[in-house]
Amino acid sequence: MKKRWLPEWVSEYRDRHGKRRYRFRRKGFAVYTFKAAPGTEAFRQEYDACKSGIAAPVIDPGADRAAAGSFDDLIARYYRSPDFLDPGERTRVVYRGVIERWRQQKPTSGKRYGEAMVRDLQPRHVEKMMADMLPHRTAANMLRKRLKALMQFAIRQGLAKVNPVDATRPFKVEGSGFHTWSEDEIAAYEATHQVGTMARLAFDLLLFTGQRGGDIRLLGPGHVRDKRITLTQEKTGVTVSLPILPPLAASILATPSRAMIFVVNGLGRPFTRKGFGNRFRAWCDEAQLGACSAHGLRKAAARRFAEAGCSNQQIKSWTGHTTDSEVARYTAAADQRTLSDEAGEKLMANLRKRLANQDDKPLEKEA
User: Where are the extended beta strands (E) located within the chain?
Assistant: First the structure.
């Protein structure tokens, strides 16, 4: 019997041009055609997305009976569109969760939001939905963003002429997200976890690459070539190539490991995404850094670049951000400090110039 080399539910076929293609076919799930070739990292990510029901969503037996022009109809189309499929797997999971929770809700009319007609949505309806979610402002704002994206897609599909969400406003949310590590907090962690420990290696990988914890937990020697780390970010699909800075090189060499992954758990295995977050939380607690987190080190890395005078383009080359506005969220404090220093220096220089001009004026003759 010929040994099967493709993963479960994946089969090979020839398209009408004779080209070899691969598809995911699982009972109860939509069929998905792979973009990448088997054996590649991109293929693995697509396959994981299929198994989790993102790229190949579970078939709703009643989906084909969704009323034309309803939100059930719109959402089914949206899940098959590039608007939904292009972002990374983690992003799609979040988007789908927000949308599904919303469309299953029943307002006072007794019908699900999914059964409502797209053309009937008005700004006052969106504001009422957001108000009903208080005091959870962040969740309400997330719903608004997903409804806005849905309605933009609806316009292109001919199901709406205007986007009613544009007339609404998000709630103001206090705070700036994850706490950015200060230099004192960085020093406190380094004093608690010495070079050569797994806790310190995880920290150094986060700080000296500026990457997310989800990507750091999968980094290994296979990502290193010519003294550089090259990785494709799980969330965005952006590929970055970064030089290994001396402090990180020293940390990697000092940490004994025979695994294919740099940071491993007590059993010598890679951490799960949740497991890495929990373990790093414990390492921070050991250093008495209750406000600090793995993602806060990504922000600290961006802050350090900004304080060193790096441009937005240079910072984005490390963090993988694609827009200046994303970088601005991370570097606002550093930018403000630098700009205020520059403004203060200009102010004092102008005052010194003014005083010098006054001293150079000739004394008026006495009458």
Answer: 10-14, 20-24, 32-33, 224-225, 228-232, 239-243
